Amino acid sequence: MLVTSSTIRLLLCSVVDDGNKLKHVLREMANNLLGPDSDNDEDSSCSFNGEVSKPSKWNRALEIASSLDVKELLLACAEVVSDADFSAAEVLMNVLEQRVSVSGEPMQRLSAYMLEGLRARLFSSGSIIYKKLKCKEPTSSELISYMQVLYNIVPYYKFAYTSANVVIDEAMRNENKIHIIDFQIAQGSQWMFLMHNLARRPGGPPFVHITGVDDSQSAHARGGGLQLVGGRLAKVAESYGVPFEFHAAAISGSEVQLENLCIRHGEALAVNFPYVLHHMPDESVSTANHRDRLLRLVKSLSPKIVTLVEQESNTNTSAFLPRFRETMDYYTAMFESIDAARPRDDKQRISAEEHCVARDVVNIIACEGADRVERHELFGKWGMRLRMAGFTQCPLSPSVGEAINDVLKEFSPNYRLAERSGALYLGWKNRALATSSAWR
């Protein structure tokens, strides 16, 4: 592959907004390459397969590129990938390959997956690679193990389950018949904890009806369909003395219609959206706009409470480069928080990041349109959508924050919990990573 002076000029022009250091280094790269003979592209070209010696000026340019830190290299690489400059991208990717590691520091680990995303995007194979990763998922027992590792070493799932359970428990305090629709039922573990609390109610527990919405990833992790979840929950309910019924909605959340939800008169309804609404395509993807359609459908059911937990990130409609920077910032904090809990050479941690986190990163960077399913929005945007659908936000009681603070005692003191705009924000150091809110 030839790397010409015009390529480097393009590389220089494409990164003018990425900071003084990066601009200075890339300008120096250009100056090193663009000498008196720079108009002769044949003289300044070289091969990167080792068959042709690299010119001394190009060696100097590579040295300068190598002096950049990994973050700066990734940003420069994203710029040239955005411009579809294959030559410059290959140079930077070759340098990056030597700097990333799935067992290194958090930025090195994240960079390994971001580099894969950039490579996939450059060769217009994002959706192919994403689907390939999905097809090569580990066996169900392995995937459950990796998910359990994340559940134990970082508090993001516990934040979702605990906050929603407290909200639902309080909202249903005087109800004798409860129907919970869970749009991300997974293993059903969240409701085992809730039934334990409901069993201790004065006067006895209420009747609990759960509708679980499924997806293919959850089914794969379980090694089977929703009947496994229903059976497990039924046994737990029986052990606690909770009257119980389970309804399986084996359908993607974005395809759910009223007839899938088993709505019954006389049952107080709670709807749970745990890290799932961002997978629903909106108006930027399809005229069907399943994200807002689903919210309107839920509102038409007159639920007593709706719980929403989402990642606090802005990757839905952002253009590629702002989305890349946002992904880097968000997942740097995520990888740092994981790093605090396990040694860097821990094989379980490496596998958990690869199978439970890396696919999301690749999807955000490499894919567009319907193939990009990771489409996060900030809490303010979720609030606008919910209000447009007719919902009113419910204030969270102090007991919700108290329950989360009890959970966080098990984890690093670098986790932060804050309340803003009626929602709870969970963050790592100064970066908010997830929000929990309640609506009716």
From TrEMBL:
Region (VHIID): 147-212
InterPro entries: TF_GRAS
The entry's keywords: Transcription, Transcription regulation
Motif (LxCxE motif): 75-79
Pfam entry (one): GRAS
VHIID (motif): residue ranges: 178-182
Region of interest (SAW), residue spans: 366-440
Region feature Leucine repeat II (LRII), mapped onto this chain: 228-260
UniProt region (Leucine repeat I (LRI)), positions on chain: 68-128
PANTHER family: OSJNBA0084A10.13 PROTEIN-RELATED
Entry's family note: Belongs to the GRAS family.
Protein name, as recorded: Scarecrow-like protein 13
